[in-house]
Amino acid sequence: MARAALFDVDGTLVDTNHLHVVTWWEAFRQAGHDVPMHDVHRAIGLGSDDILTHLLGKNRDKEQDAQISAAHTALYGTYNDRLPQLQGAQDLLRNLAGRGWRIVLATSAGDPELKSLRRAIGADDVIWGVAGADDVAEGKPAPDPVHRALELAETDADQAVFVGDTVWDMRAATAAGVRAIAVLCGGIPRTDLEEAGAAAVYDSPADLLGQLDTSVLAQVSG
């Protein structure tokens, strides 16, 4: 059975979380909503519809949803050609692929945004597959994206490890029965990630790469 390393993208491999915070905050402001950036930050990692529900509530004026999402897309899109990968991200993926791991991305990003994120990572030649927002019925923290990633990798949950940076990532992986590793570079506190199911926490992709031989990934025999 193949081993699979499943990765979130925003805040895990590409340094975009704070760009999303600012652009969602501005999109909300333009629609007349005063949403604290702290709250926006904690919601990053959810899909667009879930972010709106999480921050504005189920009883919001849903006629504004399309306007707010479009504003966020337009504001965030101004950064698409200069998204920075996190230190060690590409090297981590290439190292794992060289060891026989199948690399699958599991992200809340849709297809247009994914193109920019994959360009930032610069490792398309070792990426086995991608489970994006357009590929599942329900996004994180539901296990659907992780289940889809496992299907793409053609492997079972006990032969996979999920790496992410938010509590939504940890909950999705745990719900799918996949061991979860967290990185702190998305800005979420260690305690929150551990409480959400992280088996181990590292500072960044570079930190995980440096400790790969003693990490949770080393416990998957293949």
Verbal overview:
The protein is of the alpha/beta class. It folds into 2 domains: 150 residues, HAD superfamily/HAD-like (Rossmann fold); 62 residues, DNA polymerase, domain 1 (Orthogonal Bundle). Helices cover 43% and strands 12% of the residues. It has 10 helices and 6 strands, in the order E-H-H-H-H-H-E-H-E-H-E-H-E-H-E-H. A 6-stranded parallel sheet has the order 3-2-1-4-5-6. Helix 8 links the parallel strand 4 and strand 5. Helix 1 crosses helix 2 and helix 1 packs across helix 4. The longest helix is centred in the N-terminal third of the chain and has 14 residues. The chain is globular. The mean pLDDT is 96.
Question: Concise description?
Answer:
43% of the residues lie in helices and 12% in strands. It is of the alpha/beta class and 222 residues long. This is HAD family hydrolase.
Principal-axis shape equals globular
H-E order: EHHHHHEHEHEHEHEH
Helical amount: 40-55%
Q: Main beta sheet: strand number and arrangement?
A: 6 strands, parallel
Q: Detail the poorly predicted runs.
A: none
Identify the CATH homologous superfamily of the largest domain: HAD superfamily/HAD-like
Task: Find the structural class using helix and strand composition.
Answer: alpha/beta
Number of helices: 10
Proper CATH architecture of the largest domain? 3-Layer(aba) Sandwich
The largest beta-sheet arranges its strands as 3-2-1-4-5-6
User: Mean pLDDT across all residues, rounded?
Assistant: 96
- First and last CA, distance: 6 Å
The overall strand count is: 6
Q: Note the beta-strand portion.
A: 5-15%
CATH topology-level fold name of the largest domain: Rossmann fold
So what's the CATH class of the largest domain? Alpha Beta
Rg to the nearest angstrom? Answer: 17 Å
